[in-house]
Design brief:
Largest sheet: 9 strands, mixed
CATH architecture of the largest domain: 3-Layer(aba) Sandwich
CATH class of the largest domain: Alpha Beta
Shape: globular
Number of strands: 17
Strand order of the largest sheet: 5-6-4-1-7-8-9-11-10
Distance between the termini: 27 Å
CATH topology of the largest domain: Rossmann fold
Structural class: alpha/beta
Strand content: 15-25%
Number of helices: 19
Radius of gyration: 23 Å
Length: about 475
Amino acid sequence: MTRRRLIVVSNRGPVSYGRGPDGERTTLRGGGGLVTALRPLLARHDVTWIASAMSDEDRAVAAESGGALEDTTRDGSPFRVRLVAHDPAAYDGYYNVVANPMLWFVQHRLWGFARRPVVDERFHAAWRDGYEAVNRTFAEAVVEELDRAPGAPVFFHDYHLYRAPRLVRDARPDALLAHFVHIPWSDADTWTAVPAAVREAVHDGLLANDVVGFHTRRWARTFRRAARDVLGAEGERTGVLDYRGRTVRVTHHPIAIDPDEFAELAASERVRAAEARLVAGRPEQLVLRVDRTDPSKNAVRGFTAFGLLLERHPEHRGRVGMLALLDPSRQDVPEYAEYLAAIEVEAAAVNERFGTDAWLPVDLRVADDFPQSVAAYKQFDVLLVNAVFDGMNLVAKEAPLVNERDGVLVLSENAGAHEELGDWAVTVNPFDVDGQAEALHEALTLPAEERRRRAEAIRAHVRDHDAARWIDAQLADLDAVGKGGNT
């Protein structure tokens, strides 16, 4: 394997900085899905990672180091991190008005349209002075890094950075650019929720790349259609679009996890301690959901469906419990705060109707506690993933990998993971609570042999399609471009 110089660009980076009680600078290693998935890249190549300076200490580090410094991953792999400091007002508009909730809601089809969204002057100002401005700052940092490392491929990530590739392309026409979108793509009609200039700018920015990647064939296909409808991009060959005299490859590679690392985590002391507490109070059969309190995750309908299960199948009362481990998400955005309140109301309604002194139907825990989640992964009998729409959903891969009870996956047909795992899951429509109730009943009553067959198939797939394979597929896409696949 040849080591190569690479530039990774994302809103959040692999490290952040703070101050400990003694006043000494501390380093917090990033543990999100993106950072974890890209770890093989950091281990095998010379990577510069450009990300936002999120904390006061991040900004201090950026100022002291000229924005860039050397660091290492948990396993000792070296990389270079460049922290980009943004104007606070610009960042607020970029993140809290445009990226979340507008782009996220459009791409997950969360708007009802009768009353929301309302595109007012605040949004226009946030787009112009926030999203565009922050993307410009990122693009300037990328150009400086390209001057330092000419020819290094640039990997942009996700919905925060749709405009940056166009700005880089205009400044460095020969740059090799790729952009991976980790959330679903919506059709052109759904994109009319934002003004024409905005949706055109979004699609134009992505088409400035040489490669645009998605987790699934479905999202890649939808993007190609939307690019044709919104911008008039052309493409008669499968997986290719022609736009502004250039060829853009549109690919799909499902994000993966590191099975060995996750198995090690599942066996860790913190997880085993959390598991012991869970086992001490678990019901006879455990239905689990692990999510953020994001409207796209569909927790409210999940609780409604569980209530319908108990109503229609009273034999489950007192025997089956739902454990909902929900990480509070973006509570400074009104839509998210409202949704968390709705989650709590629906869970309480199920408990009030069916609960007894000896049995709590829904155990709702709202906290950021990943060891507890992994402990629950090991113990579920049924895992409910009923997302409205999801780019992938790594819970559907992580939990079955370490589960010790041949647990059954109940999976939304609109989760990206369904494209890979649907043959071994009980499939549900995320809007059909009646169907979800019956799917939960089916999963709870599957014969042991069938449970084992499905669980073993999912585990084998997740082990075979790991994070290193995901990285290699994307590097192969760039190699294809570099061999003359683009003009």
